[in-house]
Structures are given as C-alpha cells and as structure tokens.
Write a structure and sequence with these properties.
12 helices; 554 residues; alpha+beta
C-alpha cells in the first residue's frame, strides 16, 4: 500500500555510527546538536512521546482525542451511515476521528478501524504536531496540510534539539495566533454533503468577541484557559532534560463530550473536570413577579461560541423549574426521570430545551446527519461585543403561554428552584442507534446527565450551583416588561448568578425550530404548539427588558 508520508528518517554521526534512538534532551557534552533518530512509525505512536513528555501524554490518553476512533457511538453512527448511504459517506467521519489512518491510506470509510494499529487511530500527537497548513474553508478537515518531513511542530520559538525528533516553531500550534484556532476549526466546523452546517463551533467563535478583540483574539486554547489549561506564572520543563522555562499546556482538551466505554481511564474524573468547566459557562437569574409569574433568564457568557455547540443536534441541554408552596411542589417543568429521553413527555408544554434540529431538502425533520440539507437551533448565542454590554440574555416564561400577560402560576410560590442539565448525547439518539442494531444497549444505558452550574451565594453563604428563589433571598428587580403595555408596571424580585445583569436587553426564548429559516415547511407553515416559539416565533425577537439593576441583583 502506498503511504507517501511514511518513510524512515535515521540520524548518523559524523563518523557514520548510528545515534541511539532515544534521548529527551541534548547530550550536553556534544558541541553539535544531536541528530534525530526516530522513524516515521515511532513518531506516529503516542507511546513514543510518553517517556519525554509524560504529562502531555497522560492528559492526551484520557482525552476524547485519544478516544476518537474507539468511541462506540462514533463507530455505530459511522457504520449506520455507510450502510444507509451505500458507502457514499466515505471518509466523511473518519478523516477527523482517525486522520493518520486516512492520510496513510489505511482506511477509506472507518469500517476497518478495529484491525488497525493503535498508532493509526484517534487524533494523535503526531497528527496535530505535523500540521503545516490550513486552507480557508475550515470544514470537514478537507484543507489540512500535514508535513511529510517528520519535524514535530510546536509553539516554542526556540526548541531545544534532542536525539529523538526534529523540532520547529509553528503558528498552528501557538495559542496566541489565529492559525491555531483555524487548525481546530478544520474539524470543528462540519457541513454535510447535503449542505447542512451541522457543527458551527469555529464559525461561531469567529463572530464572537473572543474571535476579534481589536486585532487580537482569545483562541480555542485561550492562552491556557479554555480547552488547554496552563499557568504561565509557573514555568516548567515540558520535556525531560529540557529547560525549566516553558509553560505547560494541558492536553486533555476538555469540553462536554464524555466517554461511554468502561475501559476509558478515569471516567469519574473526566466527568468532574467537565462539570468544573461548565461552572463558568452560564449566567442567569430567576425572577418572580407579584402576579406569580416565573421568569428564567440565561446568558451564554463564558464560551467563545454558542451553547451548546459542536454536535448540537445530538446534545440535549434543558432547564428544570420547580415551584413550591409550604414545602410542597405544585408546578414543575424539565423534571425528567432517569432513563427517559428529553422532550418525550407531551404534558410538559413549558420545557425549555436548547439544541439544533436537522431537516432534509423538503424541510422535514430528520435525525441522522447524512439525511440533512440544513440545520437550525435555539442555542444561547456567544457574546458578540463588550460595548455596549452583552444583549444575549434569553428569558423563558413559566408557564410558557403565548400571552405573556397571562403567564402566571396558579398560586404564588414561596420557593422556585432552577437547575440546568445537559446530556452530551441525548438518550433518544442512542436509543435510535440501538434500535437500528448499530449500538449495544449497554452503551446507551451509560448515558450521563451533567450538571451545569448557576453559581450564586444565597444570604452570603457558600456558593451553590442552583438558582433558588425565595422572598427572603430575592432582591428587588425591575418592572416585568414581558407583561406588555397593560401590565408593564408589575414588579419582579430576583435571585441571580454572581455576575449577572440585564441592562443589555433581553429576548424571549424560543423552542427548537420546526424548520430551517427561509424554507417552506412541509405542512404549508402550520406549526405544532409544542414546536413553535412564543407567539409563533413572532415575539421571539422582541425585546422585553431594556432596563434593570446593574448590581447583579437582576
């Protein structure tokens, strides 16, 4: 099999003697830099990196990048897609889940991944650190250039020579450069062959305040604070024998996806890390007006992209609201029992779910990406500007009636609790793959629901991760402008996250769309009440709160 970028690069000394193949630092006594001795096969194997870079390897080994070719959900979805498209899906999935194997000509469709060496699978050290060009489309890994020179690229402008591999600086691995985010975007912006832009994370980032801050930006690695944590104040040696003046960047690339295989190292630790990261994602408030109307505000204030993002058609993020009187719940929405797919309770008309939906060429909803011609969602939008203050707040009325003036509970609560949940992959998606025979039911049974923190400090105490409104804990808010002209003077009292205010304005939250914008619906535009936004979507863009406290109390 022809493998154009696979060849052996051996180093020899001036006398012709072979230099030993391993060595993390320079010899110290040799006046000339050591020549690298690693072969292409060795460089492909992440285990070869472990001896000199144990911390990097340890992070990567417990990352979803390492797991990308072994994830049973990916394998199931790829197998089903290949079958249902008659093989036309090709390398659409596998070129991001096993890029080395694709570049080496070891697979065309990912159906033979189990038979390949581990070094050919996953998003490996060798792949990311060999990228030397990225085109302009930033979609589907179609325009990534991978060097064949066996030089390992990184962000250090003055790499120290070592006896194992050649090294050089590259802006594609430098988190202070635009190119590093462009490199990530090549696999984190996905458009189907039918034209559906089903993953838009990189595009979302480019239109956020983080993508353009006066000519600079906060990248995906975010100078060590988003998907590659670091502490520049504590320089270390990032390789054995190297200078202790470098900054270590974490390589676990934590986001929201979680492993479904019990053989994955430290699944509990992975979930704890994800939930810790999610503690900075959302801001918001819960307010109750004097007529017993509950209002929940959310703002995706932390990430540099929409929330949720990525494969948002498969993710399920939702809000749970419970109202009590004298210790007894009398109203709830989003209280979903374990093992029940989100959105399948027809009696929960108020459920606020944040997700994408996919549609075919006739604008009919579809569930599998190879069927999709377009995609649209109701996610929380990224921050587009810091001046004026962000205007991304969305408000959900409880109950979610079409007439805001009538959106009041049957009685005045004395406690309202708001919790945000997320499933990286919805149980309904997994169940669908089980029913098609592509996924083991035992895998679907491992679906994990993550807690998304809404950090606040009731009564000045310890920080808690739910919003709990009581008359005693609440502070005076602002007129409930969702009541309209007839009731705009109704006052609200609120409990908020630590740094939330509503001065930038608010829009009514919508439900996931029943079709893609600008496309006629297959039923000539008749939208089921459970699928439509407030007032058939007409009110979804209306500003409902342009005034309020700026002290975080609203």
């Amino acid at each position: 099999m022809k493998r154009p970028w696979l060849y052996v690069a051996l180093g020899v000394s001036a006398s012709g003697a072979a230099i030993p193949p391993m060595g993390c630092g320079s010899s110290g006594t040799t006046p000339v830099p050591p020549k690298p001795t690693a072969s292409a096969q060795e460089l492909r194997d992440p285990n070869a990196c472990r001896d000199c870079h144990p911390s990097h390897y340890g992070d990567w080994a417990k990352s979803m990048h390492a797991y990308a070719s072994k994830d049973p959900v990916f394998l199931a979805m790829n197998a089903r897609g290949q079958r249902e498209t008659g093989g036309q899906l090709g390398n659409f999935c596998v070129k991001c889940h096993a890029p080395v194997a694709v570049n080496d000509g070891m697979t065309k469709d990912g159906l033979n991944l189990d038979s390949l060496p581990d070094a050919e699978k996953g998003v490996t050290c060798f792949f990311c650190h060999s990228i030397n060009s990225v085109g302009t489309t930033h979609v589907n890994a179609d325009d990534i250039g991978v060097a064949s020179d066996l030089v390992i690229r990184g962000e250090i402008p003055n790499p120290q020579a070592n006896a194992f591999h050649a090294s050089m600086y590259s802006s594609y691995q430098d988190d202070s450069k635009d190119e590093s985010s462009q490199m990530c975007g090549s696999c984190h912006d996905i458009t189907t062959t039918g034209g559906a832009h089903i993953e838009r994370t990189f595009q979302e980032w480019t239109t956020s305040v983080f993508g353009d801050m006066g000519g600079s930006h906060t990248s995906c690695a975010a100078n060590g604070n988003c998907h590659m944590t670091s502490d520049p104040s504590t320089p270390v040696s990032i390789a054995k024998g190297g200078p202790a003046t470098r900054t270590f960047h974490g390589h676990d690339f934590s986001a929201v996806d979680i492993a479904f295989d019990p053989s994955f190292p430290s699944p509990a630790a992975q979930q704890a890390t994800i939930e810790a990261n999610l503690s900075t994602v959302l801001q918001g408030a819960v307010c109750v007006n004097s007529r017993a109307g509950v209002r929940v505000f959310l703002d995706g204030a932390g990430p540099g992209h929409n929330w949720p993002s990525g494969a948002a058609q498969d993710r399920r993020a939702w809000v749970e609201v419970v109202a009590e009187k004298n210790g007894q719940p009398f109203y709830s929405s989003g209280s979903i029992p374990a093992g029940t797919p989100v959105g399948t309770d027809p009696t929960d008309m108020d459920l606020w779910v944040l997700r994408d939906q996919m549609f075919d060429s006739s604008n009919t909803k579809v569930d599998m990406f190879w069927q999709a011609a377009c995609a649209a969602g109701n996610e929380l939008h990224q921050i587009a500007s810091m001046t004026p203050p962000p205007s991304t707040h969305q408000v959900r009325l409880y109950p979610n009636t079409r007439n805001p003036g009538d959106s009041v509970l049957t009685q005045m609560p004395d406690k309202v609790t708001v919790t945000v949940h997320m499933q990286p992959i919805g149980l309904d998606v997994l169940d669908d793959l089980v029913k098609s025979g592509d996924l083991d039911a035992a895998v679907a049974a491992q679906v994990t629901t993550l807690n998304v923190a809404l950090p606040n400090q009731p009564d000045g105490g310890a920080t808690v991760n739910q919003l709990v409104w009581t008359p005693q804990a609440a502070t005076a808010g602002f007129p409930d402008l969702t009541q309209g002209a007839g009731g705009g003077g109704v006052q609200m009292s609120c409990v908020s996250t630590l740094i939330f205010n509503i001065t930038g304005g608010t829009v009514l939250a919508t439900d996931p769309p029943a079709g893609c914008p600008g496309q006629p619906l297959p039923d000539a535009g008749v939208v089921a009440p459970s699928e439509a936004g407030p007032a058939d979507g007409a009110a979804s863009d209306a500003r409902v709160g342009d005034a309020g406290s700026t002290d975080g109390g609203s």
